[in-house]
Amino acid sequence: MFAVSQIIGIGARLVCNKAAAVLIGPAGIGIIGLIDNILRLVRGVTNFGIASSSVREVALLDQQEDESSAASARLIKIVYIWGLFTGMLGLFVLLLFSKQISNVVFKTDSKYLWIMGLSLYFVFNTISSIRMAVLQAKKKVSLIVLYNILSSLISSVIAVLVYYFYGIDGIIPVIVLTAMANFLLSLYFTKTIAVSKVKIAVSQIFKEGLPMAKLGLLLSVSAVFGQVCFYIIRWFLIKYHSYEILGVYQVGNTFLVSYIGLVFAAMANDFYPRLCNYEDNEQQFNNLVNDQTEFALLVVVPAVLVLYVIAPYLVPILYSKAFLDVLLILKIGLIGVVLKAVVWPIGFIALIKGNKKLYLKQNLIGDSVNVISALVGFYYFGLLGLGIAMVVMFVISGIYTYVTVMKHYQFKYRKDTLYIMLTAILVCALVVLVFLVYDFKGFNIVLFIMAVFSMLYSFVKLRNRLLK
What we know:
Elements: H1 2-23, H2 25-46, H3 50-64, H4 70-96, H5 98-106, H6 112-118, H7 120-137, H8 141-166, H9 171-189, H10 202-240, H11 243-259, H12 262-277, H13 282-318, H14 326-346, H15 349-352, H16 356-381, H17 383-409, H18 415-437, H19 445-467
């Protein structure tokens, strides 16, 4: 079900990105990336990570009691109120720094009224994120799927229409209108969730929500640090090159995070809350992490290889020939997605176990390595270096994460999981060898054969798992 919703989401995103590429060009897409970076930064500072931490708390409470119990309804009311508060805090921060943000994005403070209008994004986005987090914690799969599908379709229609009539001036209206649409959808899809009607004192709301805020605060620190690192990379690209190069980098991120990354987003909707339920059962906990690692690799590796084969043709179709330089990022960067499939499942372990400091360290190390390797890589190798940076980040952060979870929680990979991981690593090594011999242009018969082999291999492995 998640796969279907993500496929529809990708289709809608493709239409939206094509419209943006044609109507606002590389510079416009670069501006979108910069605004998105700033919004994520402010959101990380002001939302206390309530959406992420509430998934764990609601899921654990529902495991102990009936999901419609008074305790669950009370917790959800507290979560909703905290969400409203943090949304208003984000709005206030953006209003306060509207002129400074206008200077950063548009090189003039004359657009500060646009930035002030953008502040509404925080109220809409925070409330919708909190409500969807509750659906995730309660494993309301069908509702999440419907929300994702409608959100993707509506967002694309808004973007295409606004960019068509207003061009670059439509960037901020698109962000606000999309957030408002998601807000309205979230209200509709969570209307059946039981919420306590009992009045709760402000002091109790603060006291009972504080544990989530403490956990979420560390998640926020991690998110803020990550966005600061991304901002440094974007600033470096603008400072020493141009908005056009920033636009190419943004498209590279779209391929690596928004397209292939949707696989991880779909998995997280089910994996995270289920893993919470197995927190005290070591065997089932480890088995689920192993299962998720295998599944992620068996899905991601074929997807990455197919993208390698079609990327030279896909980029001009989805965007325009002005974005063909993105192939330099994807050349090595796509291998980083395969490594992410290994690192991503074990990254949840410290969070589920409540080891906030360890989880924070994992993320800080990954983001630090990313920004340093990206700046060094771009300086010496240009856009190719940005792809190399992604591989370096996941290799270093992956080794650190595995060593720490093995030491603290005795986590181990199964033999069959290790076998699939070894196969994926060998495929990545072969891809690198192919690029040492051939250029990443036109049809590549070697990559095509590897993609077909990978799809057949994944099909057989997944079928065997289902038949067990």
